[in-house]
Fold:
Amino acid sequence: MNLAAVQKSADVTDWAARIGWVVGLLLFIAFVYWLMRQGWKWRGSLQSDLPELPQAPEVPGEATLRLSGRYHGSTTAGQWLDRIVAHGLGVRSRVELTLTDAGVDVVRPGATDFFVPAGQLRAARLDKGIAGKVLAEGGLLILTWQHGDRLLDSGFRSDRAAEHTAWVDAINLMNQSITTNQTPTTNASTTPTDDAPFTTEGTAR
Structure:
């Protein structure tokens, strides 16, 4: 009888220890989550100078390309771990991308939509990672664009990764065309020529 009582007591003690471990683990997870939220808020406050996201024009023009997939976040250009969280840019979501002559329309169900005007697009490339997400080489479509005083990288993953290359080619061609059109030309009327009349006015006699 005494042996059975000791065994029963031991079982109760084991359950209490397990419950204690579970409660401790849950508290630890809650603490880590709280720290992450505080870090997110702190990062957002540091990025408070970032302007509101541009919205699509009423008439964006005819679609050149479309893409359905996922938005994986934005970072400071060239710094793939420096996540941008202001104005909802840090929220991952499904995405519908549409490329027109006016720019790139980014529609995100459940998150903030935004528009990247063609004049603010700087480049497009294939990459494998952006803050918190790493895929196979070339698994991400990265759009580099100017927003306020910041140059940003935004990462997208199409449901059909083979579409990425067409987007890279189209955006880089668009950017090259815009850059060429903005290059100032030399005014021929201000260029001196050999046909200008020669005068001795003001020379020593």
Q: What stands out?
A: The first strand starts at residue 65 and ends at 76. The chain has two helices and ten strands.
